[in-house]
Amino acid sequence: GAVVSQHPSRVICKSGTSVKIECRSLDFQATTMFWYRQFPKKSLMLMATSNEGSKATYEQGVEKDKFLINHASLTLSTLTVTSAHPEDSSFYICSAEYTDTQYFGPGTRLTVL
Amino acid sequence: SQQGEEDPQALSIQEGENATMNCSYKTSINNLQWYRQNSGRGLVHLILIRSNEREKHSGRLRVTLDTSKKSSSLLITASRAADTASYFCATSNFGNEKLTFGTGTRLTIIP
Q: Is the N or the C terminus of chain B less surrounded, counting Cβ atoms within 10 Å?
């Protein structure tokens, strides 16, 4: 139980395009999901908290117009990187909480050319 | 920064030996969790220890928590090659689901 999936696992896009990443809780409902960013050989940095049916809460320094989050159902949250640039290239990971534990998706590797 | 620190940053040991990783954090916590991450993959939850607990076991894993020193340790006994990964501690505060991750320890088990 408590499985979280992400799609796509890997995406390469041109600078200026937008990319949508999906995060799904497969066998439980999650009113709250989290989006993290991870640079190579570094720790995870929380970007935002995604709340079902309401606006996301962004961490300091994260541009909400750049990283759009939509949590339209109890099993799906999406992160859209708008007008992506090479500096947005990173590993993006989502998580969902179930019984006091956060379960993580497998991550999405974004490369912006 | 609220981020905790882990030491060592990197650890290489022979298969069969025990591996110990330490985590320090800065604020009062509700619980502390340990995660494993294989290269380029998501995080796998290993164990959760609450602030009122001092020690917890799960298979070959032993976690201790010392809230007076704001530190935790993860011991992996009888290490295996498959244990090669990065290990992160993460803390959460009371009334807040957000996790704050440590800097991580890269563990390499030499066959």
A: N
